[in-house]
UniProtKB/TrEMBL annotation:
<dbReference type="Pfam" id="PF00491">
    <property type="entry name" value="Arginase"/>
</dbReference>
<feature type="binding site">
    <location>
        <position position="130"/>
    </location>
    <ligand>
        <name>Mn(2+)</name>
    </ligand>
</feature>
<dbReference type="InterPro" id="IPR023696">
    <property type="entry name" value="Ureohydrolase_dom_sf"/>
</dbReference>
<keyword id="KW-0378">Hydrolase</keyword>
<dbReference type="GO" id="GO:0005634">
    <property type="term" value="C:nucleus"/>
</dbReference>
<comment type="similarity">
    <text>Belongs to the arginase family.</text>
</comment>
<dbReference type="InterPro" id="IPR006035">
    <property type="entry name" value="Ureohydrolase"/>
</dbReference>
<feature type="binding site">
    <location>
        <position position="157"/>
    </location>
    <ligand>
        <name>Mn(2+)</name>
    </ligand>
</feature>
<dbReference type="GO" id="GO:0005829">
    <property type="term" value="C:cytosol"/>
</dbReference>
<dbReference type="GO" id="GO:0030145">
    <property type="term" value="F:manganese ion binding"/>
</dbReference>
<dbReference type="GO" id="GO:0004053">
    <property type="term" value="F:arginase activity"/>
</dbReference>
<dbReference type="GO" id="GO:0006525">
    <property type="term" value="P:arginine metabolic process"/>
</dbReference>
<feature type="binding site">
    <location>
        <position position="261"/>
    </location>
    <ligand>
        <name>Mn(2+)</name>
    </ligand>
</feature>
<keyword id="KW-0479">Metal-binding</keyword>
<keyword id="KW-0056">Arginine metabolism</keyword>
<dbReference type="GO" id="GO:0000050">
    <property type="term" value="P:urea cycle"/>
</dbReference>
<feature type="binding site">
    <location>
        <position position="153"/>
    </location>
    <ligand>
        <name>Mn(2+)</name>
    </ligand>
</feature>
Length: 347
């Protein structure tokens, strides 16, 4: 920040350390991968979000939050569908939409996430629709088997291929990840592409308000911790955060999968399956701040921003909200940043 440097110079300060920083570690690096995947649902437009966020200066925005963070943008993910996946689709999964594309994209993403974590301390996956939550979390699990997952969403996205009413695979990624549900995808070869999976007690949902009957049945049956909007109303965000962190293994790294539709449609209108009565932006920020403050967040997804839905103003509002969430996720403090300033300015 030029004015701080100028101030430092004018007052003759010996050294002006970091002006805005969140952590004390020196080698923090964040990998970013865009996944322009839109075949998990039927509306065109979500594939434009990664490049739109870049146009809105995603890297610079995150850099301004933490000037020591090294940010590596790996561009947008590419994938190709092979005959084997087409065969799986034909023989077992033709009743859901775009299975082969889903698997091809997520297979590529699983490899990409592992590579990024070998080279960086954290990663951010930008969707695309939430179907890519599978590859992002599965890749994370292959690198870091002891992982906890916080899924912030209006929806549970835990449908099985034979319970989904829409056939949209963005409503199913969690069932590919959970130890207790993977067996329902027995023709998908999951043991090969993603042997490590998530035990149900390391998953917490926050923000639910549109859960399909079969999803509720499944969640209830296997006992999944879910803080839907009604619990948030009853006990408030601080208590929800406390219960979430109590539930998760304190030794584990954390993956935060943030579906923009978790936020209320006033602050995030440009999304394919908007549901009213959601989190305020402040509640969303509070939640990600608390998660960030654990210093255990290693992977983050931001999905379902659709720049083709709504007015220009709607799109701006939605992207702005997404950027605020990411800022807080990666270190922004609403109270200001001061802890690393050591100038001797007050003598
Ligand atoms: N990632 C999302 N926005 N998912 C919405 C899913 C909606 C519905 N439960 C379905 O399975 O089709
Ligand atoms: Mn979702
Ligand atoms: Mn959703």
């Amino acid at each position: 920040m030029w004015w701080m440097r100028k101030l430092a110079k004018n007052v003759g300060l010996a050294r002006l350390k970091h002006t805005t920083s969140s952590g004390n570690s020196t080698d923090q690096s964040l990998a970013i991968i865009g996944v322009p995947f839109a075949k998990g649902q039927s509306k065109q437009g979500v594939e434009l979000a990664p490049d739109l966020l870049r146009q809105r200066n995603l890297t610079q925005v995150l850099q301004s939050v933490d000037d020591r963070l090294v940010i590596n943008d790996y561009g947008n993910l590419k994938y190709s569908v092979d005959e084997r996946l087409l065969k799986q689709q034909r023989e077992h999964y033709s009743h859901i939409r775009n299975y082969a594309d889903f698997m091809a994209c997520n297979r590529a993403l699983i490899g990409q996430v592992q590579k990024m974590l070998e080279q960086n301390s954290q990663f951010l996956t930008i969707g695309g629709d939430h179907a890519i939550g599978f590859g992002s979390v599965a890749g994370h699990l292959q690198h870091t088997p002891n992982l906890s997952l916080v899924w912030i969403d209006a929806h549970a996205d835990i449908n099985l291929h034979n319970t989904s009413q829409s056939g949209n695979i963005h409503g199913m990624p969690v069932s590919f990840l959970l130890e207790q549900l993977r067996g329902t995808w027995q023709h998908a070869g999951l043991d090969e592409i993603a042997p490590n999976c998530l035990p149900k007690d390391q998953l917490v949902y926050i923000g639910l308000r549109d859960v399909d009957p079969y999803e509720a049945f499944i969640m209830n049956k296997i006992g999944i911790r879910a803080y839907a909007m009604d619990s948030i109303d009853r006990v408030g965000v601080p208590k929800i955060i406390e219960m979430t962190l109590d539930a998760l293994n304190p030794q584990n790294k954390i993956h935060v999968s943030f579906d923009i539709d978790a936020l209320d449609s006033h602050v995030a209108p440009s999304t394919g399956t908007a549901v009213r009565g959601g989190l305020t932006l402040r509640e969303g920020i509070s939640i990600v701040e608390a998660l960030r403050d654990t210093k255990r967040v290693q992977g983050v997804d931001l999905v379902e921003i659709n720049p083709k839905l709504g007015s220009e103003h709607d799109v701006r509002t939605t992207v702005d909200s997404g950027l605020e969430i990411l800022k807080s996720m990666f270190g922004y403090r609403r109270s200001g940043a001061w802890s690393n300033i050591d100038t001797g300015i007050l003598g």
